[in-house]
Amino acid sequence: MDCLSDRDMETLKGMCSGGVIRGVDLSALSHWRIGGSADLLLRPASTAEVIALRRWFFSRDIPHVVIGNTTNLLFADEGLRVPCLQIGQALSGVGIEGEEVFAGAGAWVPGLARTLMLHSLSGGEHMSGVPGALGGLVCMNGGSNGRSVGDNVVSVESVDIQGTLIIREPRECGFDYRRSVFQTNGEIITSVHLRFLPGDQKAIRAEMLADLANRRKKFPLKEPSCGSVFKRNAAMYADIGPPGAVIERLGFKGMCVGGAMVSPKHANFIVNTGHAKAADILETISRIRDTVFARTGYRLHTEACYVTPEGKVLPVDKVL
Ligand SMILES: Cc1cc2nc3c(=O)[nH]c(=O)nc-3n(C[C@H](O)[C@H](O)[C@H](O)COP(=O)(O)OP(=O)(O)OC[C@H]3O[C@@H](n4cnc5c(N)ncnc54)[C@H](O)[C@@H]3O)c2cc1C
Fold it and tell me: Which of 34, 91, 130 best tests ligand 1's pocket when mutated (most atoms within 8 Å of CB)?
């Protein structure tokens, strides 16, 4: 990154105790194991560090991007030319007071679900198999079995582009099916206040184990992927079924483009068989969308997001 001098790098290291790394191979970092090189990765370890970094970048007019555990992201083959803030393990503390849960946005979601179970708190069972970090989950309003994390949010702490701390109540978060305001407002989520109900630990544990077993049976969890590529569409679901079933009926299971393959186990998963490029995934998604539209009249929209070299994060179908 040409705009940053060695002195700037030293300043950034002083502001970001979780790590500042140059030249990160995104195909090693990302869950899909795809992407070129990222010029600069920063791992802030507190809200104060996120505020300081944002103020520093804002005062220099340096665009940057935020990522969590990368489980919903497709990085460009050209890599990433802007600084990338990863909210992960360095910002992942969890505190529990009765039914109130205060968690850093970097908390690993399956670990958080387990902690809730150990405290006999019910309502987080559906998150046990979602492999993201909490900030990413809130941004995507992710979840499963008809539930979403937004159902349990009391407030979200975030930092805007200028480095101002913001606390949002749920009604200000714009939660909807796999949607929230954080997908477009440029804020970085730093911590989340959640509330769960007291429950029976044995029953919670049994539900989590059943969910995980069901996922192992249904989903190709051994190969790199981003989970479900396409979002459910209510009208299409009622008419002809969920995306996976429709894509399967159209004969896509096992179809390969370069190193990308429509999973023979679940047609809404596109797996990386070894050396897939972002271009292979884009082509696969494009072929599926075109065929589904031509044969059913429904336009599929992607849950998976594409990260451009300039750090824009867009649903993949917006870049085809
Ligand atoms: C095997 C597998 C199974 C999956 N199953 C499910 C499932 O059942 N249900 C489901 O909903 N999803 C599922 N997913 C998708 C994914 O795990 C979720 O969307 C997850 O919540 C994304 O979290 P992340 O930390 O990986 O975010 P990332 O993929 O890193 O980022 C996703 C989005 O969140 C933004 N973001 C990340 N962190 C922050 C932050 N701190 N502040 C503001 N914005 C942020 C990013 O900019 C990006 O727009 C699955 C994925 C895989 C690989």
Answer: 130
Helix residue ranges per DSSP H, 144-233: 201-218
Tokens representing 208?
């989590």
Give the whole-angstrom CA distance, residue 273 versus residue 33: 10
Query: On the CB side of 294, how many CA atoms lie within 13 Å of its CA?
Result: 7
Sign of the CA dihedral 124, 93, 105, 128?
negative
pLDDT, averaged across the chain? 97
CB-count exposure of residue 116 (10 Å: 0-12, 13-18, 19+): buried
For helices 47-59 and 6-15, angle between their N-to-C axes, nearest 10 degrees: 150
Q: Is 303 a catalytic residue?
A: yes
Q: What is the pLDDT of residues 152-161, one digit of tens each?
A: 999 999 999 9
Told to judge if 299 belongs to the known catalytic residues of this protein, a careful annotator would answer no
Instruction: Tell me, in angstroms, the distance from the centre of ligand 1 to residue 133's CA.
Output: 7
- pTM for this prediction: 0.98
Domains of the chain: 6-87 (3.30.43.10), 90-207 (3.30.465.10), 220-318 (3.90.78.10)
Of 128, 180, 228, 263, which one is the catalytic site residue? 228
- In the chain, the amino acid numbered 304 is A
Which residues approach ligand 1 with their CB closer than 6 A? 31, 66-73, 87, 105, 130-133, 135-137, 139-140, 142-144, 182-183, 188-189, 221, 225-227, 305, 313
Token pair, residue 89, equals: 């393990």
